Amino acid sequence: MGIRILITDDHHVVRRGLAFFLKTQKDIEIIGEAGNGREAVELTRTLKPDLILMDLVMPEMDGIQATKMIKTEMPEIKIIMLTSFSDQDHVIPALEAGASGYQLKDIEPDELIDCIRKIMSGENQLHPKATSHLLANLSNKENKERNLLEQLTKRELDVLREIAKGKSNKEIASTLFITEKTVKTHVSNLLAKLELADRTQAALFAVKNQLVK
User: Fold this and answer.
1) Of all helices (H) and strands (E), which one includes residue 179?
2) Tell me: the pLDDT tens digits for 85-100?
3) Hey, is 138 helix, strand or coil?
4) 123: alpha, beta or left? (left if phi > 0; alpha if psi -120 to 50)
5) Is this prediction's pTM over 0.70?
6) In 94-111, which positions are buried (b, 16+ CB within 10 angstroms) versus exposed (e)?
7) Which residues contact 171 (CB under 8 A, 6 or more apart)?
8) What is the mean pLDDT of the chain?
9) What backbone phi and psi angles, to 5 degrees, belong to 162?
10) Exposed, middle or buried by CB within 10 Å (0-12, 13-18, 19+), for 73?
């Protein structure tokens, strides 16, 4: 089974271009196209894609609203924001809405393919500009997050930092000289302690609390 993708963009040429290239990949199947956020939500309910490439600024419903609705109803579906905007007013709401990735439209095609595959394997993929905005603007958080953070062991903190760098469990195991099974246990424990749903939220949490430089 290939990765089933829904392309959402209000520009027909952009959708056609993305579909044309992605169809050249044996492990990717384009199952639909949407011209705005509302269409994306409706098609997602019907088609149940594995991943959505989501534009940000669209008529009727923007990508952030659509992402919130989709992730609320179908949290297992991965969403990559593919946009021309890299400012904090777009980046932060998009990630808080539940996007697993944030990339700019000038991304190289091969990089986009790599990004899609990594997100489907459980990693988060953020454009460097998106990461820098998070570092610059999410440095202070309420006391609740600090209190939650204090519950983590030193090793769980180490794992959290590596998650924020976009590393897979295998890469974290190699970096910290522990087994992949142990990494999975630490990831499960830290997500529970921090009251987070997935690795993307954990990465966002780490950046907000200045755990990565």
Assistant:
1) none
2) 877 778 888 888 999 8
3) coil
4) beta
5) no
6) bbebbbbbbbeeeeeeee
7) 162
8) 89
9) -70, -35
10) exposed
